[in-house]
Each structure stands twice: as structure tokens, then as C-alpha cells.
């Protein structure tokens, strides 16, 4: 068999994404035929060479790659590192057989659509800035939303010294706003709403690209088909022609 890059072998075995596999190598946690391997770009034969991570041999049989759509409840953390009694989003997927991690993050109190995957290449593609994926959120507020509040959110805000402007903003109910963003910056929606003085009582992501959360129950998950995985990269023509908010 032709030799391939070691980070790809680790990714195919469900250990980590290619990028994180490189980190494992740099940390001295990967051995190739008994020797610690830290050189990025190293190639190997997954069927003949003996490879370990943290002293444990990796499977020579490629792990089945899978991506789930999860409706994350509030109180769960999008991370693979547990601190104390933290509840992790990946804990909700009981049947996992490969190493799973979330694609991007929702903060602890934010609910809704998050992707959980063993597919490192797909994860990197989704998270790359060039993908320009729209993210739609439903924001519930403690106070009634006014026309002025919507206009303030539409003007955007500065995050990390960069002006961030939402794709669309509209009022849905007296205390509910729909906000679509493109950047995916940390706490982006919360920071956009904060400039109005409104207090958020609930935040939920309902769409990524053209992939929608739908009626999936809170805490439930389902496997995505290849067709659904590609929906995340599609754009909604209606978003570009969003009508003014009716207040």
C-alpha cells in the first residue's frame, strides 16, 4: 500500500482531525514503529506500520465516519475536555464508536443545532472562514423588543476590533428576535443584542446554511446523510432579500 501522511492515518482511525493529529505529534504522544514521531508530514503504511497514540495502538481498520445533528440543551459544553462535573454535548450520543467532537461551539447556555462528527476533513471544511456559512438564531428577551432595538442590532458591533454586521435581523414576537450572522465569532449574537440593553432569556441556533434544526427534540440527535451535510454550504436567496421588520 502506498504510504500516506500520518495525520491522515490518525484522522481515518477516528483519533482526531488532521490538524489536531499534528498537535498530538508535536506533543510527542504519537509513535511510529516504536519511535516518537514529531515531524509533521511524516508518511506511513497504515497496514504495515505500528502506530500508537498515548501508548495505545490505533486500529488498522479505518473507523466508520459519521456526522450527527444534535439539538444541544442548555447546560452542556461543546468540548472534549471535562472539568469537574461538566456535561459535554458529546455525552448525549451514547452509541458513539469513534472519537467525536463538535464542529464549532455553542456556549453553555445556548441551545440548538450543533454538529458532532468523527470526520476531521469535513469539520475543517465547515469551520474554514471561506465557507461563509450563515447561522440563524432565535433570541428570546425579557423585555419587549422595539423598532429602535432592531435598528441598533442591524448596525452591528465591534468584536476583537473588527466591525461585525448581521446578515439579517427581524422581530418575530413581542419578546423574540431572529438574527442571522455569518462570522461565527464567540458570543457574537449575545454581543449584538447587548448593545440594545435587552436581557436575553433564551438563545437557540436553528439553522446552519440551509440545514435546519426542525422539530428534533431537545437533547436528541440524528445521523446526517451526505446530501444533508452539503446543505450547510448552500445559501438562502430569501435571506439576501430580507423584508423590513414589522413592529
* Unreliable spans: 238-247
- Our count of helices gives 7
Rg over CA atoms, rounded to whole Å, is 21 Å
The biggest beta sheet is recorded as:
9 strands, mixed
Tell me the helix content.
10-25%
Structural shape: elongated
- Overall SS class: alpha+beta
Q: What is the tally of beta strands?
A: 19
Order of helices and strands: EHHEEEEEEEEEEHEHEEEEHEEEHH
Into which percentage range does the β-strand content fall?
A: 25-35%
How far from one another are the termini?
Answer: 65 Å
Arithmetic mean of pLDDT: 89
Structure in words:
By secondary structure, the chain is of the alpha+beta class. 20% of the residues lie in helices and 30% in strands. The chain has 7 helices and 19 strands. It has helices spanning 6-12, 18-26, 120-127, 147-154, 188-194, 226-231, 237-240; strands at 4-5, 30-32, 35-36, 43-44, 51-53, 56-57, 67-72, 76-77, 87-88, 101-103, 111-117, 135-141, 157-159, 162-164, 168-173, 176-181, 200-208, 211-212, 221-223. The strands form 5 sheets. Strands 7, 10, 11, 12, 15, 16, 17, 18 and 19 form a 9-stranded mixed beta sheet that branches. A hairpin with a 7-residue loop joins strand 10 and strand 11 (111-117). Helix 1 packs across helix 2.
